[in-house]
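thought: fold this chain, then report.
action: predict
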Amino acid sequence: MVAAAAAPNMTANILQQQCQVLDPRIPLQQQQQQQQQQLVPLIHTHFHQPSVLVPPNPYLHEEIPAWLRVYCKASPSLDHHLKWDLFELVELECYDSMLNRLFKDGLEEIVMRWVEILSSSMTWVRIY
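observation:
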């Protein structure tokens, strides 16, 4: 393959692992020009902005029900006690976004506690 690519009258296609012998009756420069004319790069010029922006979450500032806070802290093995099929899809989507908000708030609390512990230990190290 390498030898075929190095020969002036051969072209190699590495992806398909094939080589093609150029016609010796046509001058090499003319063959190269024909190949360059055939390989015109496609330029993508049709760009557009999306017409619909994602609306903000309508449940971002809703009050989270107390039962959902309890459910968030409960074991997943107790899920069967809730009858999810009695809820409508819109309600389930609302509760899902509220649960995500609860989980994010919980993670933020964990990170803030970790930062406090880290900064107090760094202060302790500087003192001693």
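thought: worth noting. Strands lie at 10-13, 18-21.
final: tokens above.
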